[in-house]
Amino acid sequence: RIEPQPLVEEAYDMSGARLALTLCVTKAREGSEADLSALERMFQQLRFESTMKKDPTAQQFQEELEKFQHVIDTWKDPVSCAFVVLMAHGEEGLLEGEDGKKVRLENLFEVLNNKNCQALRAKPKVYIVQACRGEHRDLGETIGGDEVVMVTKDNPQTIPTYTDALHVYSTVEGYIAYRHDQEGSAFIQTLTDVFSSRKGPILELLTEVTRRMAKEELVQEGTARKVNPEIQSTLRKRLYLQ
């Protein structure tokens, strides 16, 4: 009988610098300022050096990410973690700049991967994406029942290109993301509240964000809608922000 092995409780070292970049299109996105304020408070509390840029064009989304990568790679002290918040109109795989042109999300994600950003190699890179991913609208479903590894050789000398990244989308593929004209987006407001007030590994915090959002009913066009975030993770360790 083979005994199950205990999980290795390893956490990312967060003793170094924490850097954050927020790129937000406010044009025709009422409520964006409330989201920016909430993010600013959160980053301050979590001791992030935060930079915010409003109304980037599609090209500037790419350029600002590349500048951020240069800042990280030339930072005077070791860097522990980077947060990138991207807020704009969008569709699946694309964000729309202030100029109406589109930029591919995968191109933005690539800038900080283990190949292209040496200072963040094997360190957590968190992307928060507040944008639509399609035109579908979720009216919700009635439930009454149950809720709904890869093995590799151990080689400490190498690391996959795309590990240590966390992509958090405000909605699932193909669906709209909602934003209130005065109060901001339910996603950013819920996320900043949970990240600021709760302690625990980030994936547990994101489960709480999803739980809260799944309970909410957002009224749009006179109809109650449901929305939930989607989390894509290649983190290898627990990530604690508090």
From TrEMBL:
Name of the protein in its database record: Caspase-14
Subcellular location: Cytoplasm; Nucleus
PROSITE patterns according to UniProt: CASPASE_CYS, CASPASE_P10, CASPASE_P20
One Pfam family from the record: Peptidase_C14
SMART domains in the cross-refs: CASc (SM00115)
Top-level lineage group: Eukaryota
Keyword annotations from UniProtKB, A to Z: Cytoplasm, Differentiation, Hydrolase, Nucleus, Protease, Thiol protease, Zymogen
Signal peptide: none
Record domain Caspase family p10: where: 155-242
Native source species: Sciurus vulgaris (Eurasian red squirrel)
InterPro entries in UniProt: Caspase-like_dom_sf, Caspase_cys_AS, Pept_C14, Pept_C14_caspase, Pept_C14_p10, Pept_C14_p20, Pept_C14A
Assigned protein family: Belongs to the peptidase C14A family.
Cellular component, GO annotation: cornified envelope; cytosol; mitochondrion; nucleoplasm
Gene Ontology process terms (BP): cell differentiation; positive regulation of neuron apoptotic process; proteolysis
